[in-house]
Amino acid sequence: KAFAFAADISSSSGAERLVDRAVDSLGGLDIFVGNAGIWPEKEVPVESMESERWTETIRENLDSIFYTTRAVAKIMEADGRIVLVSSTAGQRGEAFHADYSATKGGVISFTKSVAVELAPRGITVNAVAPGWVDTEMVSDAVADAGRERIEIRCGVDARERRDQPVEQRLEVARLLLVGAVRDDRRPRHAEADHAEVRRCLG
C-alpha cells in the first residue's frame, strides 16, 4: 500500500497533517526517513549571502526535519526506526555554501540529541551523511569541470567517486530494517522527501 501527500513540511501544521495522514492510511508508523532538503547551487560567500537564502535553506533543510521528527516521535511505538539524511558538508563544511553545511551539521547534532531522548522507548534514531550523490539536484553543478573545482575548494580527494542513489538507499535500509520488523506485521514506512511524501507498506 502506498500513497502520495503534498504538504509544506517546513511548517508545524504541514508536518502534523502529513504524519496524521500516514497514521490514518497505514494504521501507525514504524519507520520514518527524513530526506527533505535543498542545495542552493549558486556559490555565495558569507558576506554576500542574502538573509532570504539563509532563511529558506534553514527552513527547508532543518525546520522540516524538526517538525516531521517531532510529529513522528509523538506517535511512534517501541521498536520504531528513524533515519535522518545529513551530508558530509555537515561534518567538514562547504565553502560558499555555509547555509547548506550549517543545516546539515544541525541535522547531525539533532540526531544525536533525539537518539538519546527516544532510546528509553526502544526507538533508534540515526543519520546518514552521504557525500556527492548522482542526483538531479547536483547534475548542473558537477557538469564538465564543476566536480573537480568543488572538490578542490572543499578539500575532497578528486579521485573519490560520486555515490549512486541506490547505495544510499541500501545504507538507509540497513539502519531501518535490522531488528525493526515486528512479529505481527510488516513495517509501516514513511519517507519525507521535499514537499512530496510517500507512505509505503512493506
Largest sheet: 6 strands, mixed
Q: Please, how many helices? A: 6
Provide the low-confidence segments as ranges.
158-162, 179-187, 194-202
Strand order across the largest sheet:
1-6-5-2-3-4
Beta-strand proportion: 15-25%
Total count of strands:
6
Distance between the termini: 8 Å
Rg computed from alpha carbons, rounded to a whole number of angstroms: 17 Å
**Class by alpha and beta content:** alpha/beta
Task: Name some characteristics of this structure.
single chain; 202 residues; alpha/beta; six-stranded mixed sheet; 6 helices; 6 strands; 43% helix; disordered C terminus
Descriptive account of the structure:
Mean pLDDT is 78; it is low at 158-162, 179-187 and 194-202. The chain has helices at 12-26, 51-75, 89-92, 98-118, 146-154, 165-177, and strands at residues 2-6, 31-34, 81-85, 124-128, 188-193, 196-201. A 6-stranded mixed β-sheet has the order 1-6-5-2-3-4, with helices on both faces. The protein is built from 6 helices and 6 strands, in the order E-H-E-H-E-H-H-E-H-H-E-E. The longest helix is centred in the first third of the chain and has 25 residues, at 51-75. A hairpin with a 2-residue loop joins strand 5 and strand 6. The chain is α/β, with parallel strands linked by helices and 202 residues long. Helix 1 packs parallel to helix 2 (51-75) and helix 2 (51-75) runs parallel beside helix 4.
